[in-house]
Design brief:
The chain has about 400 residues and is α/β, with parallel strands linked by helices. The protein has two domains: about 5-175, Acetylglutamate kinase-like (Carbamate kinase); about 255-400, VC0802-like. It contains eleven helices and 20 strands. The strands form four sheets. It has an eight-stranded mixed beta sheet with strand order 3-6-2-1-9-13-14-12, with helices on both faces. The chain has a six-stranded antiparallel beta sheet with strand order 16-17-15-18-20-19. Helix 1 links the parallel strand 1 and strand 2 (about 35-40). The chain is globular, with a radius of gyration of 22 Å. The two termini are about 45 Å apart.
């Protein structure tokens, strides 16, 4: 029997009426004799409300306890949706991430899925049931509840689809797929009918909220097509899959990340203090990226090190900064109020023309570029946070609309 995995995001399951509509949509699929596993997010603003309650007790709550707290949101959704399924005559069962066999490392708040053991899911499917799974959560090999970070329900869905050898994975939200920019920022953003795995991974890494980067990695490894669709407005969709190299050359999308913080160190012991800073953040399970180290060979006085942190995704970041200063010393610089605008596409770095023209474009509008990072599919520029929307609009008009 054909097997598919569906995932419904928070806006799709925001209230009881929407849950009833989702139940009917799932029922229509099941009546076609298709095995269905459904991954759900927390309802509406549930996660935000839980975060707010935690902050009432502490500016920096223990990460393990945050996972215990936040994992309850998806459990509410899955049990209510299961009740809705029963009311329309469809046999269904709800499972937590741990019951569904989502095994992770022992990192809290942004755990990585290391294995999926879907035996319970398969057993329930064999009984003819729709299986409804709480997304965003798993269980570590130490048997602690863990959560998978921003967009973690996507990871749950795609990892499960890979383990079940599903025909496809359908990601439902309040938008009908992937756009060339955030439509809330760029009114004429283009709908993208197809996106390659590498481009989607870079978009996710650079701040796009449509899909989780680890989810795309699972899909790429197992060659599972991901269909990004609107929950209640059928029609257009975006298919994320393996495309032939060179299918589309040039900038396909412009993505932003709004709250970036850069940490800089310099001096003869810059490398040593860099190691101390990163080790401390690792102990706090705070990921770092865009690492740059320059070690001068003579006396080391001009040695420099820097990295950036996605500060908007970290609980208690301000307190973490204060603690890092105590461990590393006061001679550490935090560049706040930064954001990243990223150009995504294949072949962007075959020459430097796109990069140079983008720098000049932003310079013409008095937008300061304070850092640059490139990969095979991405050019990212650090800009002032209060100019990020304008930066996205300028780059989108130049590179997407003129293509």
């Amino acid at each position: 029997m054909t097997c598919i995995v569906q995932k419904y995001g928070g806006s799709s399951v925001a209230d009881v009426d929407k849950l009833r509509k989702i139940a009917r949509l799932i029922g229509e699929v099941k009546r076609q004799m298709i095995d269905v596993a459904v991954v759900v997010s927390a309802m509406g603003k549930t996660t935000d409300n839980l975060l707010s309650m935690a902050r009432d007790f502490s500016p920096k709550p223990p990460r393990r306890e945050m996972d215990m707290l936040l994992s309850t949101g998806e459990r509410i959704t899955m049990s209510l949706l299961c009740m809705a399924m029963h009311e329309i005559g469809i046999d269904a069962v709800s499972l937590t991430g741990s019951q569904a066999g989502i095994i992770t490392n022992d990192r809290h708040n942004d755990a990585q899925v290391i294995e999926v053991r879907p035996f319970r899911v398969q057993d329930e499917m064999a009984k003819g049931k729709v299986v409804i799974i709480g997304g965003f959560q798993g269980v570590s090999y130490k048997r602690d509840i863990t959560t998978l970070g921003r967009g973690g329900s996507d990871t749950t869905a795609v990892a499960l689809a890979a383990a079940l050898d599903a025909e496809r994975c359908e990601i439902y939200s309040d938008v009908d797929g992937v756009y060339s920019a955030d439509p809330a920022v760029v009114a004429d953003a283009r709908h993208l009918s197809e996106v390659s795995y590498p481009e989607m991974q870079e978009m996710s890494t650079a701040g796009a909220k449509v899909l989780n980067a680890q989810a795309v990695q699972f899909a790429k490894e197992k060659n599972i097509a991901i269909y990004a669709r609107s929950s209640f407005q059928p029609g257009r969709e975006t298919i994320i899959r393996r495309l032939s190299p060179g299918t589309i050359i040039g900038v396909q999308a412009v993505v932003r990340e709004e709250r970036i913080e850069r940490i800089r160190l310099s001096g003869s012991d810059a490398l040593e203090r860099f190691q101390q800073a990163v080790s401390y953040l690792e102990s706090e399970q705070v990921p770092v990226k865009e690492v740059h180290v320059t070690q001068i060979a003579d006396n080391g006085d001009h040695s420099k090190a820097s990295f950036v942190v996605s500060a908007g995704h970290i609980y208690g970041w301000e307190q973490t900064k204060d603690e890092m200063k105590e461990k590393v010393g006061p001679d550490i610089t935090f560049d706040s109020d930064l954001a990243t605008v990223s150009l995504i596409g294949e072949g962007l770095n075959r020459n430097n023309q796109t990069l140079l023209e983008t720098i000049n474009l932003l310079k013409e509008h008095d937008i300061i570029v304070s850092g640059i990072t490139t990969t095979s599919f991405r050019i990212s520029l650090l800009v002032p946070q209060n100019r990020i929307d304008q930066s996205v609009q300028l780059c989108h008009a130049r590179w997407v609309m003129n293509s």
